[in-house]
Specification:
Layout (H helix, E strand, L loop, with lengths): L17 E10 L4 E10 L5 E10 L2 E12 L7 E4 L2 E7 L3 E6 L3 E7 L4 E5 L2 E16 L2 E16 L6 E12 L2 E10 L9 E8 L1 E14 L5 E10 L8 E14 L3 E12 L2 E12 L1
Antiparallel strand pairs: 1-2, 1-11, 2-3, 3-4, 5-6, 6-7, 7-8, 8-10, 9-10, 10-11, 12-13, 12-19, 13-14, 14-15, 15-16, 16-17, 17-18, 18-19
Protein backbone atom coordinates (compact mmCIF):
# COMPACT_ATOMS: atom_id res chain seq x y z
CA UNK A 1 0.00 0.00 0.00
CA UNK A 2 1.32 3.42 -0.97
CA UNK A 3 1.84 5.85 1.90
CA UNK A 4 3.49 9.25 2.38
CA UNK A 5 6.83 7.52 2.96
CA UNK A 6 6.87 6.48 -0.71
CA UNK A 7 7.21 10.11 -1.76
CA UNK A 8 10.84 10.02 -0.58
CA UNK A 9 13.70 9.13 -2.92
CA UNK A 10 13.81 5.34 -3.08
CA UNK A 11 17.02 3.43 -2.26
CA UNK A 12 19.00 2.16 -5.24
CA UNK A 13 18.43 -1.51 -6.07
CA UNK A 14 20.96 -2.30 -8.78
CA UNK A 15 23.00 -0.99 -11.66
CA UNK A 16 21.00 1.37 -13.84
CA UNK A 17 18.56 2.21 -11.04
CA UNK A 18 16.68 5.48 -11.42
CA UNK A 19 13.92 7.22 -9.48
CA UNK A 20 11.70 9.59 -11.45
CA UNK A 21 8.69 11.88 -11.11
CA UNK A 22 6.60 12.80 -14.16
CA UNK A 23 3.92 15.48 -14.44
CA UNK A 24 1.71 15.81 -17.53
CA UNK A 25 -1.25 18.11 -18.18
CA UNK A 26 -3.45 19.34 -21.01
CA UNK A 27 -5.62 22.46 -21.14
CA UNK A 28 -7.70 22.51 -24.36
CA UNK A 29 -9.15 25.94 -23.58
CA UNK A 30 -5.73 27.56 -23.16
CA UNK A 31 -4.33 25.33 -25.90
CA UNK A 32 -1.39 24.39 -23.66
CA UNK A 33 -0.07 20.86 -23.11
CA UNK A 34 3.02 19.85 -21.18
CA UNK A 35 5.14 16.95 -19.97
CA UNK A 36 7.91 17.28 -17.37
CA UNK A 37 10.03 14.43 -16.01
CA UNK A 38 12.94 14.59 -13.57
CA UNK A 39 14.99 11.48 -12.89
CA UNK A 40 17.40 11.05 -9.99
CA UNK A 41 20.17 8.46 -9.72
CA UNK A 42 21.64 8.02 -6.22
CA UNK A 43 25.40 7.67 -6.01
CA UNK A 44 28.66 9.51 -5.47
CA UNK A 45 28.00 11.89 -7.00
CA UNK A 46 24.24 11.71 -7.43
CA UNK A 47 23.05 12.72 -10.88
CA UNK A 48 19.82 13.90 -12.40
CA UNK A 49 18.12 14.14 -15.78
CA UNK A 50 15.31 16.28 -17.10
CA UNK A 51 12.88 15.98 -19.98
CA UNK A 52 10.41 18.81 -20.47
CA UNK A 53 8.16 19.48 -23.46
CA UNK A 54 5.67 22.33 -23.90
CA UNK A 55 3.09 22.56 -26.71
CA UNK A 56 0.78 25.41 -27.73
CA UNK A 57 -1.98 24.11 -29.96
CA UNK A 58 -0.32 21.74 -32.40
CA UNK A 59 3.06 23.51 -32.21
CA UNK A 60 6.04 22.52 -30.08
CA UNK A 61 7.06 25.60 -28.05
CA UNK A 62 10.15 24.27 -26.31
CA UNK A 63 11.97 21.06 -25.40
CA UNK A 64 14.52 20.63 -22.61
CA UNK A 65 16.40 17.34 -22.44
CA UNK A 66 19.56 16.83 -20.44
CA UNK A 67 21.13 13.97 -18.48
CA UNK A 68 24.02 13.26 -16.15
CA UNK A 69 23.69 16.54 -14.25
CA UNK A 70 25.34 16.44 -10.83
CA UNK A 71 22.78 16.94 -8.07
CA UNK A 72 23.53 17.87 -4.47
CA UNK A 73 21.28 16.51 -1.71
CA UNK A 74 18.91 14.68 -4.10
CA UNK A 75 15.35 14.20 -2.91
CA UNK A 76 11.75 14.83 -3.85
CA UNK A 77 11.23 17.48 -1.19
CA UNK A 78 12.65 19.72 -3.93
CA UNK A 79 14.54 18.52 -7.00
CA UNK A 80 16.04 20.92 -9.55
CA UNK A 81 17.74 19.91 -12.81
CA UNK A 82 18.71 22.46 -15.46
CA UNK A 83 16.14 25.11 -14.54
CA UNK A 84 13.26 22.72 -13.85
CA UNK A 85 12.07 22.21 -10.26
CA UNK A 86 9.60 19.68 -8.86
CA UNK A 87 8.77 20.08 -5.17
CA UNK A 88 6.52 18.24 -2.71
CA UNK A 89 4.32 20.56 -0.66
CA UNK A 90 2.28 17.80 1.02
CA UNK A 91 3.05 14.13 0.33
CA UNK A 92 0.53 12.42 -1.96
CA UNK A 93 -1.58 15.60 -1.99
CA UNK A 94 0.12 18.76 -3.28
CA UNK A 95 3.18 19.64 -5.37
CA UNK A 96 4.65 22.49 -7.39
CA UNK A 97 6.36 22.65 -10.77
CA UNK A 98 8.52 25.47 -12.10
CA UNK A 99 10.29 25.58 -15.45
CA UNK A 100 12.19 28.84 -15.72
CA UNK A 101 10.57 31.12 -18.25
CA UNK A 102 7.90 28.56 -19.18
CA UNK A 103 5.78 27.05 -16.39
CA UNK A 104 4.71 27.96 -12.86
CA UNK A 105 2.17 25.41 -11.67
CA UNK A 106 0.55 23.95 -8.57
CA UNK A 107 -0.64 20.34 -8.66
CA UNK A 108 -3.31 18.88 -6.38
CA UNK A 109 -4.24 15.21 -6.12
CA UNK A 110 -7.77 14.20 -7.12
CA UNK A 111 -7.35 10.45 -6.66
CA UNK A 112 -5.61 8.03 -4.33
CA UNK A 113 -2.35 6.55 -5.63
CA UNK A 114 -2.80 3.81 -8.20
CA UNK A 115 0.03 1.30 -7.79
CA UNK A 116 1.95 0.21 -10.88
CA UNK A 117 4.54 -2.51 -11.43
CA UNK A 118 5.63 -3.38 -14.96
CA UNK A 119 8.83 -3.55 -16.99
CA UNK A 120 11.13 -3.61 -13.94
CA UNK A 121 9.63 -0.42 -12.53
CA UNK A 122 7.45 0.11 -9.48
CA UNK A 123 5.49 3.19 -8.58
CA UNK A 124 2.14 4.92 -8.49
CA UNK A 125 0.07 7.42 -10.48
CA UNK A 126 -2.47 10.03 -9.43
CA UNK A 127 -5.06 12.06 -11.31
CA UNK A 128 -4.50 15.73 -10.51
CA UNK A 129 -5.83 19.26 -10.84
CA UNK A 130 -3.22 21.58 -12.40
CA UNK A 131 -3.35 25.39 -11.95
CA UNK A 132 -0.95 28.20 -12.82
CA UNK A 133 0.60 29.85 -15.84
CA UNK A 134 2.45 28.91 -19.03
CA UNK A 135 4.49 31.41 -21.03
CA UNK A 136 4.12 31.20 -24.81
CA UNK A 137 5.64 33.80 -27.18
CA UNK A 138 6.39 36.05 -24.23
CA UNK A 139 2.79 36.08 -22.96
CA UNK A 140 1.37 34.24 -19.97
CA UNK A 141 -1.55 31.87 -20.46
CA UNK A 142 -3.67 30.83 -17.52
CA UNK A 143 -3.71 27.05 -17.02
CA UNK A 144 -6.58 25.31 -15.22
CA UNK A 145 -7.04 21.68 -16.19
CA UNK A 146 -6.59 18.03 -15.40
CA UNK A 147 -3.32 16.15 -15.45
CA UNK A 148 -1.40 13.32 -13.87
CA UNK A 149 1.60 12.86 -11.58
CA UNK A 150 3.56 9.63 -11.45
CA UNK A 151 6.45 8.45 -9.28
CA UNK A 152 8.41 5.44 -10.56
CA UNK A 153 11.61 3.70 -9.56
CA UNK A 154 13.63 0.65 -10.55
CA UNK A 155 15.77 -0.62 -13.41
CA UNK A 156 14.30 -0.56 -16.91
CA UNK A 157 15.97 -3.45 -18.73
CA UNK A 158 16.12 -2.35 -22.37
CA UNK A 159 17.97 -5.51 -23.31
CA UNK A 160 14.72 -7.39 -22.64
CA UNK A 161 12.18 -5.02 -24.15
CA UNK A 162 11.71 -3.15 -27.40
CA UNK A 163 9.26 -0.44 -26.44
CA UNK A 164 7.05 0.98 -23.72
CA UNK A 165 3.71 2.74 -24.11
CA UNK A 166 2.06 5.16 -21.69
CA UNK A 167 -1.60 5.98 -22.27
CA UNK A 168 -3.55 8.35 -20.03
CA UNK A 169 -6.99 9.90 -20.46
CA UNK A 170 -8.49 12.54 -18.16
CA UNK A 171 -12.23 13.07 -18.58
CA UNK A 172 -13.28 14.78 -15.35
CA UNK A 173 -12.30 14.85 -11.69
CA UNK A 174 -13.77 11.37 -11.12
CA UNK A 175 -13.02 9.59 -14.40
CA UNK A 176 -9.67 8.75 -15.96
CA UNK A 177 -7.67 5.95 -17.56
CA UNK A 178 -4.07 4.90 -16.84
CA UNK A 179 -2.37 2.25 -18.99
CA UNK A 180 1.19 1.02 -19.44
CA UNK A 181 2.36 -1.54 -21.99
CA UNK A 182 5.73 -3.26 -22.52
CA UNK A 183 6.74 -5.15 -25.65
CA UNK A 184 9.33 -7.88 -25.00
CA UNK A 185 12.48 -7.89 -27.11
CA UNK A 186 11.96 -9.80 -30.35
CA UNK A 187 8.16 -9.55 -30.34
CA UNK A 188 6.81 -8.19 -33.62
CA UNK A 189 3.23 -7.23 -32.87
CA UNK A 190 1.30 -5.14 -30.38
CA UNK A 191 -0.78 -8.11 -29.23
CA UNK A 192 2.38 -9.60 -27.63
CA UNK A 193 2.69 -6.70 -25.19
CA UNK A 194 2.25 -6.98 -21.44
CA UNK A 195 -0.32 -4.42 -20.28
CA UNK A 196 -1.49 -3.03 -16.97
CA UNK A 197 -4.45 -0.65 -16.82
CA UNK A 198 -6.81 1.00 -14.37
CA UNK A 199 -9.90 3.12 -14.73
CA UNK A 200 -10.68 5.77 -12.17
CA UNK A 201 -14.36 5.95 -11.31
CA UNK A 202 -14.10 7.79 -8.04
CA UNK A 203 -11.87 4.91 -6.93
CA UNK A 204 -9.39 2.85 -9.00
CA UNK A 205 -10.89 -0.08 -10.91
CA UNK A 206 -8.56 -2.71 -12.38
CA UNK A 207 -8.91 -3.57 -16.05
CA UNK A 208 -8.57 -7.34 -16.38
CA UNK A 209 -8.08 -7.45 -20.14
CA UNK A 210 -7.02 -4.17 -21.79
CA UNK A 211 -6.70 -4.15 -25.57
CA UNK A 212 -5.08 -1.29 -27.47
CA UNK A 213 -4.91 -0.71 -31.22
CA UNK A 214 -2.95 2.13 -32.82
CA UNK A 215 -2.86 3.79 -36.23
CA UNK A 216 0.47 5.31 -37.27
CA UNK A 217 1.54 7.74 -39.97
CA UNK A 218 4.28 7.03 -42.52
CA UNK A 219 6.99 8.04 -40.04
CA UNK A 220 5.72 5.76 -37.28
CA UNK A 221 4.04 8.44 -35.14
CA UNK A 222 0.87 7.46 -33.29
CA UNK A 223 -2.13 9.28 -34.86
CA UNK A 224 -5.25 7.46 -33.65
CA UNK A 225 -5.96 4.79 -31.07
CA UNK A 226 -8.77 2.63 -29.80
CA UNK A 227 -9.12 0.67 -26.58
CA UNK A 228 -11.34 -2.16 -25.42
CA UNK A 229 -11.39 -2.49 -21.64
CA UNK A 230 -12.78 -5.57 -19.93
CA UNK A 231 -13.15 -4.55 -16.31
CA UNK A 232 -12.46 -6.92 -13.42
CA UNK A 233 -15.65 -8.16 -11.82
CA UNK A 234 -18.01 -7.07 -14.59
CA UNK A 235 -20.08 -9.83 -16.19
CA UNK A 236 -20.99 -7.78 -19.27
CA UNK A 237 -19.62 -9.50 -22.37
CA UNK A 238 -19.08 -6.11 -24.03
CA UNK A 239 -16.01 -4.02 -23.15
CA UNK A 240 -15.78 -0.35 -22.34
CA UNK A 241 -14.55 1.44 -25.46
CA UNK A 242 -12.27 4.47 -25.78
CA UNK A 243 -11.24 6.29 -28.98
CA UNK A 244 -8.62 8.99 -29.41
CA UNK A 245 -6.77 11.08 -31.96
CA UNK A 246 -3.66 13.17 -31.76
CA UNK A 247 -3.76 16.86 -30.82
CA UNK A 248 -0.03 17.60 -30.80
CA UNK A 249 3.24 15.72 -30.60
CA UNK A 250 6.94 15.54 -31.29
CA UNK A 251 9.76 12.99 -31.50
CA UNK A 252 12.90 13.20 -29.37
CA UNK A 253 16.25 11.48 -29.78
CA UNK A 254 17.33 10.32 -26.30
CA UNK A 255 20.49 8.47 -27.29
CA UNK A 256 19.75 4.76 -27.37
CA UNK A 257 16.03 5.53 -27.13
CA UNK A 258 13.48 7.48 -29.17
CA UNK A 259 10.44 9.10 -27.56
CA UNK A 260 7.31 9.87 -29.56
CA UNK A 261 5.52 12.21 -27.18
CA UNK A 262 1.90 13.02 -28.02
CA UNK A 263 -1.24 14.45 -26.49
CA UNK A 264 -4.59 13.03 -27.56
CA UNK A 265 -8.25 13.93 -27.39
CA UNK A 266 -10.02 10.91 -25.88
CA UNK A 267 -13.72 10.00 -25.98
CA UNK A 268 -15.70 7.36 -24.13
CA UNK A 269 -19.34 6.84 -23.16
CA UNK A 270 -20.35 10.41 -23.95
CA UNK A 271 -17.31 11.97 -22.27
CA UNK A 272 -14.54 13.93 -24.00
CA UNK A 273 -11.18 14.64 -22.42
CA UNK A 274 -7.47 15.07 -22.89
CA UNK A 275 -4.48 12.85 -22.15
CA UNK A 276 -1.19 11.37 -23.32
CA UNK A 277 -0.04 8.64 -25.62
CA UNK A 278 3.74 8.30 -25.35
CA UNK A 279 5.80 5.68 -27.15
CA UNK A 280 9.37 5.02 -25.96
CA UNK A 281 11.42 2.60 -28.04
CA UNK A 282 14.93 1.54 -28.84
CA UNK A 283 16.40 3.81 -31.50
Amino acid sequence: MIGPEHEALRPASGQGFADSVTVAFGDPQAQVYGLVRIGLQPGEPATGSVLAVLFAGSETVEVAARGEVEVRDPGWESATVDGVTLATEEPLSAWSLRWEGRLDLTISALSPPVETAIGGLEGYEQLCRVEGTATVDGAERRVSCLGQRGHNWGVADWDRMDLARTVCAWWDEDHALMLTAIRPAGAEHQDAEEMAAHLLEGEPVEVADPRLSTTYDAEGHQRRAGLELYVTGEDDEYPRRVAGEVTCGTSLDLGRLRLDCAFFEWRTEGRAGTGRYDLLRRA
